[in-house]
Amino acid sequence: MKDLTSRLAQLRGIKCESVRAVEYETPAPDDIYKVGTTILFTDNTRLAAQFWRLRKAGKPLVSIFDHRQRYGLPAPVDAPRMAHDELQGREVLEAAMDGTTGDLLFRFDGDLSLEVFNFTAFEIWELTFADGTSELSNYALAE
Fold it and tell me: Which residues contact 43 (CB under 8 A, 6 or more apart)?
């Protein structure tokens, strides 16, 4: 875990370049996007994840589970659009992994946080660093 912790710390100051979010049940359209949501950072690090939540100012903003829900709103929630709009161009202030759960936490400028959940012992997120090496969500279980 020490190596992954230091690799995540190197993301500090890197910006989110693009977000391609789709529903978690949606099959991946090609090999580049192995799971539902892909986030590309300006140093070419790529995060591919199934389950996530955005928090703003310490409060839940939207999660992939909210997508297409109405919640009494005039229109269904468009979680992929919201993720794109909120994350694009944001600078990483901190990135860390919970060694017990395998969850990832990214804190961004603008009091925005991205939580990536690992609900299973299998590969539910993948983080590919700029040098081409990658870590999978079952990293915590391999220790």
Answer: 11, 14, 130
Residue range(s) defining the domain that contains residue 15: 2-131
Coil, strand or helix at 55: strand
Q: Which of the four pLDDT bands, split at 50, 70 and 90, describes residue 30?
A: low
**Structural domain includes residue 141:** no
pLDDT tens-digit series, residues 68-78? 888 988 999 99
Residue 40 in any domain: the answer is yes
Tell me the one-letter amino acid at 128: T
Token pair belonging to 135 = 């870590």
Residue whose C-alpha is closest to residue 49's, from 38, 62, 65, 60: 38
Q: Tokens 């990214």 map to which residue?
A: 106
Q: Contact, 47 vs 105, CB < 8 A?
A: no
Structure confidence by residue, pLDDT tens digits, 102-122 = 899 999 999 999 999 988 777
Amino acid letter for position 37: T
User: What phi and psi, each to the nearest 5 degrees, are found at residue 18?
Assistant: -155, 155
- Total structural domains within the chain: 1
SS3 content of the chain, % helix, strand, coil (to 5): 15, 35, 45
Give the span between the Cα atoms of 83 and 35, in whole angstroms.
Answer: 15
